[in-house]
Task: inverse folding
């Protein structure tokens, strides 16, 4: 049995930036009356994690089990980024906004970038929200110098919000 809790937004600023594919590997858990209990913090991924357990007794008997743990929010921002950029490139980067039970019908998406890029258009966009209908939101950028760039995208839809940070290296041609 899995249970969730918490619901924080990662860094405290509402920006998710701690993404992991393997959340926990713990080769030894103590069983009490045939059950193991373990608490651990989840990363910022909004996905479905597979939880697996294999148990071996001192008498060489074993068993296994698995379940899934789904992590989502009423409004989710998933990065939609290029794979790379070079100095002088003009490109788009943004997020795909998903609505899963959000009360609002409109959202505001705001972009910021720290590093060697300049905006070529608006830094904020308003979009309609529809349950189960993802909406891609892109912002224009020009790469001005080499080095890492931290892109941050914040979605606000009434009382619901999400934010995500994605880093992209700007390389020399």
Result:
């Amino acid at each position: 049995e899995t249970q969730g809790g918490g619901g924080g937004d990662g860094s405290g600023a509402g920006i998710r930036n701690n993404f992991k594919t393997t959340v926990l590997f713990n080769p030894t858990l103590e069983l009490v009356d045939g059950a193991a209990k373990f608490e651990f913090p989840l990363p910022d991924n909004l996905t479905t994690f597979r939880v697996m357990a294999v148990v071996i007794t001192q008498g060489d008997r074993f068993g296994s089990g698995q379940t899934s743990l789904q992590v989502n929010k009423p409004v989710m921002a998933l990065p939609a980024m290029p794979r790379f950029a070079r100095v002088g490139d003009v490109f788009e980067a943004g997020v795909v906004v998903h609505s899963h039970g959000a009360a609002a019908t409109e959202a505001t998406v705001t972009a910021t970038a720290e590093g060697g890029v300049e905006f070529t258009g608006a830094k904020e966009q308003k979009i309609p929200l529809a349950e189960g209908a993802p909406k891609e939101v892109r912002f224009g950028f020009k790469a001005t110098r080499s080095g890492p760039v931290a892109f941050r995208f914040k979605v606000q839809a009434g009382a619901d919000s999400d934010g995500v940070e994605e880093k992209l290296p700007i390389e020399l041609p």
